[in-house]
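Dear Dr. L.,

I hope this message finds you well. Following up on our conversation about the binding site, I have prepared a predicted three-dimensional model of the protein together with S-adenosylmethionine. For your records, I am including the exact sequence and ligand specification that went into the calculation, followed by the structure tokens. Please feel free to forward this to your student if that is useful.
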Amino acid sequence: MESYLETTIDVYKQAAEKPDVGLCCTTTPVWALPGLTMPKIMLEMNYGCGSTVNPRDLVNDPTILYVGIGGGMELLQFSYFSRKKGGVIGVDIVDEMLTACKENMKEAEASNEWFKPDFIDIRKGNALSLPVEDESIDIAAQNCLFNIFKAEDLKLALEEMYRVLKPRGRLVMSDPTCEQEMSDELRNDERLRALCLTGSIPLKDYIKMITDVGFGTVEVRAKRAYRVLSPNHYPTDDLIFIESVEVCAIKDPMPADGPCVFTGKTAIYYGNEDCFDDHKGHILLTNQPLAVCDKTAGALEALGRDDIYISDSTWFYDGGGCC
Ligand SMILES: C[S@@+](CC[C@H](N)C(=O)[O-])C[C@H]1O[C@@H](n2cnc3c(N)ncnc32)[C@H](O)[C@@H]1O
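The resulting structure of the complex is given below.
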């Protein structure tokens, strides 16, 4: 195993033994749900940088896989929707994290009458070689783990998620991304990388890694400020700004003309007809917004018309639209 992966294990061994409130997590509030009481320890061990739990992904009684379990907060949130034995599989490589999470689940059981610990099947395993059968999962999620991986390992981790997902299954992820260059000194600092500070890559590269593995559709659901690396605290001459994103990748067949990537663009037709039909499956009703993937946005723009407005990416996509 590469030494940065060992360092990562060490960092999270410590974070399991002694909760570290400032580690990874963002200040976005953890959403409350009716009848769900989140144990305090799970909040203190929230080492994620967004949310991967979306009720609209969780229809049709899905089997859910969650890789890199932390204190179990999102496992519990997924169980809230799944509520069946073994409905959520949690995988983590760090023994101490597995133990802490199991302990936290006992607290969750004491404060949530609907919850049974056997709703969650906690397994020891590596994101790079998942202990999960091929095509057995409907929703696979990870929060703030994959950004730590170097390119080859990130590819492996994404391939593993792709392997275990059923056709049309969804990979839901939250990770930091960074558009700026980082020095080798920052990149190679194993501890900073493990702390989710110096492994992040530009969003378009992150999306390309996902689509290169075969996911035919990608949705960018949210993007928000995450951290700065400032010269007074880190070995950098420039202020480096890091964001965090929430992304969903769908194991759709890859379209012949490339993946559909939704970044929150919208097309609005404002011509004199009732609608605009591009005869490629896209019908724009007059003055009605249609969410479009970047590929469709580009194709509509290329028509050079003066009666179609295309918005910029809002980095907020919540379903529907062209593809
Ligand atoms: C940044 S924490 C995120 C925890 C959790 N997802 C959350 O949002 O609170 C990373 C998690 O991944 C686990 N981990 C680290 N390396 C791993 C690997 N190679 N395979 C599986 N889990 C790993 C750590 O033990 C830790 O639980």
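In brief: Residues 5, 8-9, 12, 24, 46-48, 67-70, 73-74, 91-94, 97, 126-128, 143-145, 196 surround S-adenosylmethionine (CB under 6 Å).

With kind regards,
A. P.
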